[in-house]
Amino acid sequence: EFSASGLLEGPDLLRRGFTSVKNELLPTHPLELSEKNFQLNQDKTNFATLRNIQGLHAPLKLQMELRAVKQVQRLPFLYSSNIALDTLRGNDESIGFEDILNDPSQSEVMGEPHMMMEYKLGLF
Predict the structure, then answer these.
(1) Which of 33, 43, 55, 69 could covalently link to 84 via disulfide, CB atoms 3.0 to 4.6 Å apart?
(2) Which residues 6+ apart lie within 8 Å of 19 measured at CB?
(3) Distance separating alpha carbons of residues 87 and 82, to the nearest angstrom
């Protein structure tokens, strides 16, 4: 959690952001944990249904496609819409909460491009 300069330095705020007590708390509402795992649970259900209807090859093919799409990314300091991932999951035709209130132009997360690339490549 500390920077490479030494243990006497503070946490690296540029890469990790500010620490928050809220992130370390347990879920306060019974549905909070269910909502966090919604996409994972939905994927498991879809894969089980696909396996029952089309056989073992269909969920394996879809999982390989999802894994390949997740590896394709833009540079770390640029916003990526992940349209291919949304298309595979069937979310491309629906408008959700994150489509309206998650505008990348209003995002406060923008770092030094050179430093972020060096960190991603393991040079820093």
Answers:
(1) 69
(2) 11
(3) 9
